[in-house]
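Fold these two proteins, one after the other.
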Amino acid sequence: MADDHEQIVVRRNKLRALRDRGAAPYPNDFRPDHAAAEVHARFGPLAEAELAAAPRVAVAGRIMALRDFGKAAFLHIQDRSGRVQVYVRRDRIGDEAFECYRLLDLGDVVGVGGRAFRTRTAELTLEADELRLLAESLRPLPEKWHGLQDVEARYRQRYLDLIVNPEARRVFEVRARVIRSIREFMSG
């Protein structure tokens, strides 16, 4: 609990730093035009030459992984449909946006604009030319490898279970579809 409290204090300080920079920590003007699954479906099958000519896309999602390399970084962002990797470079998004990126944490929701390409390991990735914070996450996500192990905690903090547990999210989506189908059948 002490670790969580300390992380919350650090995240609140980062939020204050973002506000001091003039960044709106909860803007509502970013409009994604693709979901993560749509990015993979549309650009995954394309050859390198076709990817180079492909249009720019905008996606939004929660940061689930972050690997920083100084002047560049890789993020994995997750939306309702899945995950997509994002490549962020200081010289592409600019100094101001990159300094705001430095204040981001796992769990924050970001909006990303950019073009799709493949990394050396052939992973489909968006090279960001825009990166914006859409929602600061003031509470840390559960630890990556252990997640939510306590069954009671999974029920008490259902929102976290749905964020970090793909199987729980899949079951939730299937049940929601079944309930919707039953309602349509009963009303029709």
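Now the second one:
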Amino acid sequence: NNTAKTRIMLYRNLLKTLGKAKNRVWITNAYFIPNNLFLKKIKKLARAGVDVRIIVPKKSDIPSMQWAASSLYEKLLNSGVKIYEYSPSMLHAKTIIIDDWVVLGSSNLNHRSLLHDLEIDIKIESEQAKEDVISQFKQDQANSETTELSSIPKRKVHKKIIGNIIVFLKYWV
């Protein structure tokens, strides 16, 4: 169907743009469970010195999704990706900033949202609007807790297990 083809085309464009990142990749996402290719690309960029930052909710309306996202933290942090958990309130923002390319919309970085769900994302062209999104990202980061490798073992065992199961099944959630 045309919707699925369009979603796949848009996702490929995102991956292509991500592959060209030189300075920064800043992501805010409520349900961060990207596929292996996306994860591989952002880890490679971080290892190459690109400033990769991800803001996710500290508490989610779907706790198991947050547990799944947190099961990815160790490998991301070891690659140099910086992870922040937004704590003041619910976080439902979805933005991607890749150098001066800025997108905001309704797409989560999970398999279902990227390839199946009916989502809408807007590429920002206005320089002022781009600056506004970047400024909001910085404000959200300032209101977030930095995730450190040392905090990962403190997570409850059942949350780790459920999170790992969801990541394993990510193509079906």
